[in-house]
């Protein structure tokens, strides 16, 4: 049947199904007002919207999803395309992240549509398909790039999106991000207070926007600590333990090696442990390390990894909430939030036992001893 002009098109109620007529009668409101409240029209007061939603929950009212989509143009679904080729796409934090998104979405009676992609090109094609098939009203974009093709696509298609991170262009973008640059600055200051004067930095992939921000934070930490900037102590491109080990060895075999290293990514920091074991060095005493992410594996390193941890469940909740508000009509520039990471001091960053010169001599002696043993 067809109700007044502001109402949904509804079908005859199945046995036991609560109708919009019954809901409006219980509330003492017109069906049009109830319909507009349920569909988040901006002309409905927030108090009325909440009242209608509470009554709908109490009575067990559920609108027909296909009729609602026809009327509003929305399917009440958030989209997320996970690029499984990314270095950390399968990390344990993903469960918490998805849990946060679905919890916040469910509170507003929205759902989450998740798809996977093998590459950037596949991710773009998948997003296009979800848009064309009307499977999502907007998208959450994790792991933002400085030049992000996903942003360009969604701006061109006029589809709402929220960044988990920031990007090189800010116009038309809403975001929620963790202040990784502040974490890197604080990591340097923590090590400087421990007595370290040469502090290295191992950055992540240069195409990720977070790498640019975390480098800025590291440099700000040096300046705040009164330490000189030495570009020889900065290396980039470590996303996992193998790259982390390779770049750690490069730093430690410098004639004036750092006595402490800050990593932009926890998984890369695990490579330092491997190199220190090979060189007979003690992590936290001969070489200190502070990293970022708070992955669970860090608690089981020896010694446990000192890191800046991220509340990924809360991040998922905030992203879902902001995206729904954006879809409802708020402007992107008013939907930008940041939060700090939490420093977890576990013991991998202590006062230096060796000076840079003494550390260089010890590493050189170890390498010579290894060579002699291999020549025998």
Summary, kept brief:
This protein is of the alpha/beta class and 376 residues long. It is built from 13 helices and twelve strands.
How are the SSEs placed, and which strands pair?
Blueprint: H1 20-27, H2 31-38, H3 46-59, H4 65-72, E1 77-83, H5 93-107, E2 111-117, H6 120-132, E3 138-142, H7 149-157, E4 161-164, E5 174-178, H8 180-194, E6 199-202, H9 209-225, E7 234-235, H10 241-252, E8 260-263, H11 266-279, E9 288-293, E10 306-309, H12 312-327, E11 336-339, E12 342-344, H13 356-375
Parallel strand pairs: 1-2, 1-3, 3-4, 4-5, 5-11, 6-7, 6-8, 8-9, 9-10
Antiparallel strand pairs: 10-12
Helix pairs in contact: 1-2, 2-3, 5-12, 8-9, 10-11
- Topology-level CATH name of the largest domain: Rossmann fold
In angstroms, what is the radius of gyration?
26 Å
Secondary-structure-derived class:
alpha/beta
Shape descriptor reads: elongated
Strand fraction band?
5-15%
Question: Main beta sheet: strand number and arrangement?
Answer: 6 strands, parallel
State the CATH superfamily name of the largest domain: Response regulator
Order of helices and strands: HHHHEHEHEHEEHEHEHEHEEHEEH
Instruction: Count every beta strand, where a strand is a DSSP E run of 2 or more residues.
Output: 12
Seen as an oligomer or otherwise, the chain set is single chain
Structural domains: how many: 3
How far from one another are the termini?
92 Å
Helix content: 40-55%
Low-confidence residue ranges: 1-15
CATH architecture of the largest domain: 3-Layer(aba) Sandwich
- Top CATH class of the largest domain: Alpha Beta
Within the largest sheet, what's the order of strands?
Answer: 2-1-3-4-5-11
Mean pLDDT: 88
Query: How many helical stretches?
Result: 13
